[in-house]
Specification:
CATH architecture: Sandwich
Shape: globular
Strand content: 35-45%
CATH topology: Jelly Rolls
Low-confidence stretches: 3-19, 291-296
Order of helices and strands: HEEEEEEEEEEEEEEEEEEEE
Number of domains: 1
Number of helices: 1
Distance between the termini: 60 Å
CATH class: Mainly Beta
Structural class: mainly beta
Number of strands: 20
CATH superfamily: Exo-inulinase, domain 1
Length: about 300
């Protein structure tokens, strides 16, 4: 009897481990896991206000699942499915499902094309996580309220807040014109809506591969914590994800995942996600001093 019980618990333990290790592929030829949204074709001088035509009438966004410009397409490269984002129009694809407590993994590389207003700037896109509707909530009237894992040339892993989000990051305190810079040895500082420090932080170091090469990005989210990982290197440690609405701060720990179209051609592949029952043990170290007094 004891031996039978032992076998039962052994089988159940192995089943639980396999379930936790199960990855779900989020990319197929039909983009069936995703919806899309496009704002409007960008014009020079845009100041963040809702755009109007020559008569002062509001210009409607291109909108939800209405991509006649083929901004988001699936192609084949070396017999692999690849998501191509042209970047020609500001917008995003976003998961149909909401996610919490997960490990997201994908590969990304740059294309050659850039568009207005970033023709003379760095190529730019991003992973927006814990995204909650409405669409077009932030300054550019394109993306949902969310937290951003920045993907930019030389800046893979940076953080931006979107709309009224805020978060705490282990980082050096900014001074004068400087930006905060992530560092695992520092205390958490607060950034974003309602905080003294604006919602931007640089990654701890540049681990981006050479132009034209694939980069592996990983995003760990568990409870109110998240980690930005670039080619195997943890470049940012974040916690206390939240947003502000009507003066009230609310935890932001669940939502859809957006991939940005932001004036640069970019390619994604091997987009996978798995649920986490707990924060993986290898990442515990980064939160060992969470209870220490935060710098203001």
């Amino acid at each position: 009897m004891r031996y039978s019980l032992f076998l039962f618990f052994l089988v159940m333990t192995n089943f639980t481990i396999q379930a936790q290790d199960k990855w779900t592929k989020l990319l197929d030829k039909d983009l069936s896991y995703w919806d899309s949204y496009l704002s409007f074709k960008h014009q020079p001088g845009y100041d963040g206000k809702a755009p109007t035509d020559k008569d002062g009438n509001l210009i409607a966004p291109i909108g939800f699942n209405h991509d006649e410009y083929k901004v988001f397409t699936v192609i084949k490269e070396n017999n692999e499915l690849v998501l191509k984002i042209s970047g020609e129009i500001y917008g995003c694809i976003f998961t149909k499902e909401e996610y919490a407590n997960y490990h997201l993994k994908l590969k990304v590389k740059w294309g050659d094309k850039k568009w207005t207003p970033r023709t003379n700037l760095l190529k730019d896109t991003g992973i927006l996580y814990h995204s909650i509707e409405p669409l077009g909530a932030e300054y550019w009237r394109t993306w949902m309220l969310s937290q951003e894992f920045q993907i930019m040339q030389g800046h893979m892993g940076d953080y931006w807040n979107q709309a009224t989000s805020a978060i705490d990051i282990k980082a050096f305190i900014p001074e004068s014109m400087m930006n905060p810079v992530a560092d695992k040895g520092q205390a958490f500082i607060s950034l974003g809506q309602g905080e003294k420090i604006p919602g931007y932080c640089m990654r701890s170091a540049n681990y981006e591969n050479k132009e034209g090469e694939w980069n592996t990005l990983e995003l760990i989210c568990f409870d109110n914590k998240s980690l930005h990982i670039v080619n195997g290197h943890v470049v940012m440690i974040l916690e206390n994800s939240r947003y502000e609405q009507n003066g009230k701060k609310t935890p932001l720990i669940k939502g859809k995942i957006q991939l940005q179209s932001e004036a640069a051609e970019v390619f994604f592949k091997d987009i996978e996600i798995k649920h986490l029952e707990s924060l993986p043990a290898k990442y515990f170290q980064y939160y060992a001093q969470t209870e220490s007094k935060k710098q203001q």
